[in-house]
């Protein structure tokens, strides 16, 4: 194989995949983290209320079983009201009181809301969007983190906080910023553009190489220097795909470096672990962002109809830092809300189900936004534990319920850890940037974003009952037997080398539609239709074309299939390659859309077009099941729809299943004989156990 023959050296330039740290991030740590409690936390803003309220807040929190507060993320102006005049005394006093009460603290760096003095009469420090509009002071994320003065001021306040509070006994963790890039995407400020030119020079070395890799004689976009390369502001039509994708990756690398620099300052003065609260939809490179953080956390505000978002995000962020529990850092007590909008209120019991699910799936922390309803600002309609007038909110009793549930579940979870899945879906931040530049051809029922495509495959695995995970492109493949990689336009040599080793050892890799169709710089491969993937899959891609709306069909497993999206029409090009699904069209006679190649002890499966409709959905389910059975994966859970099963292993090696009902209808879980109730130790009678609406049930399986 050409790839394996050349695999002793990497490509001439570093890929967007951060190869050097991927294996390290995926490997289990030398000293596994031992969780000793479940965190039941709340986001707290003492700077907005009278000092004397702190004491009664502590009393109320103790009643509810709140054992942690998160503070500081929006308090820059409280700590530095005038430039250079910094005091953290107020927060030290607050932390003293909470420490005395036995309540821990996560302190946030306050960089999401820089104070007015930083930007007043300094418009060059403000964020500029893709339309060239300069955003003014207000809300948050309104500055350019690329501006030297902004970084200098940010690092000054962070250093002061870390020096003063980094050794406080109440402190158990740090959070970098808050929801980086949740409101804005790429920065087009003058400072960002200058940084862009430096980044390009570091990446390509010479402008001649950039011109070659981007093919800049297209439309006479040839450049004589890096300074001539524009940021992709609005243009009469569209920019070169290479430029647009590179600008996204540049911005996401730089925001991760901003996080890295904050971590470096904090670690000089504090040993407490550091995280950041993110969301798959935010404009960051998630894999790169977490590279230098100690544990993963995410925010989620799902309604009772959107609970599957918790399953997906927990599967994703559990895998982000292997061996370390993740946190859900923000969720609503009753409903989400901001000026002009609010979401549907949670039904009774749903909040406790949320918490049960997060804890069971590998979470250590479950935290609310926020403690007391804000009396001013843009989020005054948002629910909180207490109202502005200091009365229990409509969600107060639900928080009480979470507190009771946490006490019941804690002994089981601190003595166990999540079972490592045997099947995973790949998440590629490079793929996401490419698809944002070049949206996928699709019909109206197909996801229009990369995240949706990954979730589509994840949901199929979940609904089939298999324990699963979402692993970053650079992660190790330890513990896996089956890897599904959907819609990854560029497949790097580094990624393929790890996959080849995985397959040769007996794994199965299913490369999904859209994979391999683009080069590293968002160009078209010139050696083969799917780049290096052709060689690994043992095929030649004869044609690549969009199928949506063409009426072109395919045949596989006795089914006639319709398609959506782009297709690579394949021909078997190796003796070990079998054709499993053929295209039925005069335009591409004798070509396939599904092939299988044996490689070592495993297989490479290439699905080069996405089957659509009910028949297509059934076909994809059967395809996953076929290979899962062939690999003899652990049997799927036999569980009613709307109930999630989280498998764990305790310190004695016993298997533990925790089932949580999320649809409010109650559920049923089939059990092997000999199962016992995990709390009481009593033998469970019958072949199944029921789970109450929004309830949970823990069972120990026989050895």
List the helices and strands and how they pair.
Layout: H1 2-5, H2 19-26, E1 39-43, H3 53-64, E2 68-71, H4 76-79, H5 89-100, E3 104-108, H6 116-119, H7 148-165, E4 171-175, H8 190-204, H9 207-214, H10 241-267, E5 274-275, E6 277-278, H11 286-290, E7 297-299, H12 308-318, E8 326-330, E9 337-338, E10 341-342, H13 350-360, E11 363-368, H14 396-414, E12 416-418, E13 423-427, H15 429-437, H16 450-463, E14 468-472, E15 482-485, H17 493-504, E16 508-511, H18 532-537, E17 539-546, E18 553-556, E19 559-564, E20 566-572, E21 577-584, E22 592-599, E23 602-607, E24 610-612, H19 613-630, E25 643-650, E26 655-661, E27 667-670, E28 676-677, E29 688-691, E30 696-700
Parallel strand pairs: 1-2, 1-11, 2-3, 3-4, 4-5, 6-7, 7-8, 8-11, 13-14, 13-15, 15-16, 16-23
Antiparallel strand pairs: 9-10, 12-25, 17-20, 18-19, 18-21, 19-24, 21-22, 22-23, 25-26, 26-30, 27-29, 28-30
């Amino acid at each position: 194989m050409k790839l394996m023959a050349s695999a002793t050296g990497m490509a001439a330039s570093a890929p967007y995949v951060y190869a050097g740290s991927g294996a390290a991030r995926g490997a289990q740590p030398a000293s596994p983290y031992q969780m000793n409690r479940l965190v039941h936390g709340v986001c707290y803003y003492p700077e907005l209320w009278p000092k004397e309220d702190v004491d009664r807040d502590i009393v109320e929190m103790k009643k509810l079983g709140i054992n942690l507060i998160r503070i500081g993320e929006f308090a820059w102006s409280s700590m530095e009201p005038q430039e250079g005049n910094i005091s953290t005394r107020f927060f030290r006093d607050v932390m003293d009181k909470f420490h005395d009460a036995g309540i821990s603290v996560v302190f946030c760096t306050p960089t999401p809301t820089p104070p007015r003095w930083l930007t007043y009469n300094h418009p060059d420090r403000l964020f500029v969007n893709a339309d060239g509009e300069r955003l003014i002071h207000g809300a948050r994320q309104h500055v350019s983190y690329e501006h030297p003065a902004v970084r200098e001021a940010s690092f000054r306040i962070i250093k002061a906080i870390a020096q003063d509070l980094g050794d406080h006994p109440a402190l158990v963790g740090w959070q970098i910023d808050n929801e980086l890039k949740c409101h804005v995407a790429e920065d087009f400020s003058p400072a960002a553009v200058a940084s862009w030119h430096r980044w390009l020079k570091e990446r390509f070395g010479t402008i001649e190489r950039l011109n070659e890799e981007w093919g800049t004689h297209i439309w006479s976009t040839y450049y004589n220097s890096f300074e001539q390369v524009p940021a992709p502001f609005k243009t009469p039509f569209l920019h070169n795909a290479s430029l647009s994708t590179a600008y996204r990756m540049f911005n996401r690398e730089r925001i991760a470096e901003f996080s890295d620099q904050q971590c470096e300052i904090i670690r000089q003065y504090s040993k407490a672990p550091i995280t950041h609260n993110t969301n798959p939809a935010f404009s960051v490179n998630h894999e790169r962002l977490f590279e230098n953080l100690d544990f993963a956390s995410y925010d989620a505000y799902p309604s009772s109809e959107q609970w599957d978002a918790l399953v997906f995000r927990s599967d994703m962020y559990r895998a982000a830092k292997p061996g370390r529990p993740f946190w859900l850092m923000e969720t609503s007590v009753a409903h989400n809300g901001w000026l002009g909008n609010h979401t549907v209120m949670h039904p009774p019991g749903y909040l406790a189900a949320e918490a049960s699910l997060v804890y069971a799936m590998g979470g250590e922390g479950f935290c609310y936004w926020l403690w007391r309803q804000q009396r001013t600002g843009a989020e005054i309609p948002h629910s909180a534990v207490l109202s502005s007038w200091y009365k229990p909110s409509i969600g107060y009793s639900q928080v009480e319920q979470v507190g009771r549930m946490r006490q019941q579940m804690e002994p089981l979870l601190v003595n166990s850890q999540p079972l490592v899945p045997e099947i995973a879906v790949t998440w590629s931040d490079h793929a996401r940037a490419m698809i944002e530049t070049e949206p996928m051809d699709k019909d109206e029922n197909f996801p229009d974003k990369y995240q949706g495509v990954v979730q589509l495959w994840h949901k199929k695995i979940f609904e089939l009952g298999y324990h699963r995970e979402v692993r970053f492109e650079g992660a190790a493949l330890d513990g896996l037997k089956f890897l599904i990689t959907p819609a990854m336009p560029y497949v790097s040599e580094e990624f393929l080398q790890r996959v080849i080793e995985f397959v040769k050892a007996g794994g199965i890799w299913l490369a999904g539609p859209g994979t391999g169709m683009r080069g590293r710089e968002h160009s078209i491969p010139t050696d083969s239709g799917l780049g290096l993937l052709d060689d690994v899959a043992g095929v030649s891609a004869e044609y690549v074309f969009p199928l949506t709306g063409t009426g072109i069909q395919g045949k596989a497993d006795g089914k006639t299939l319709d398609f959506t999206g782009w297709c690579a029409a394949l021909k078997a090009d190796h003796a070990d390659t079998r054709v499993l699904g053929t295209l039925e069209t005069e335009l591409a006679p004798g070509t396939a859309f599904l092939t299988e190649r044996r490689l070592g002890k495993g297989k490479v499966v290439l699905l080069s077009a996405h089957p659509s409709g009910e028949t297509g959905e059934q076909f994809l389910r059967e395809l996953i099941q076929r290979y899962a059975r062939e690999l003899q994966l652990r049997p799927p859970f036999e569980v009613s729809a709307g109930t999630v099963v989280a498998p764990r292993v305790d310190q004695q090696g016993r298997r533990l299943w925790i089932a949580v009902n999320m649809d409010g209808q109650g559920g049923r879980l089939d059990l092997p004989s000999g199962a016992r109730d995990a709390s009481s130790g009593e033998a469970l009678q019958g072949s199944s156990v029921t789970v109450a609406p929004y309830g949970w049930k823990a069972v120990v399986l026989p050895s």
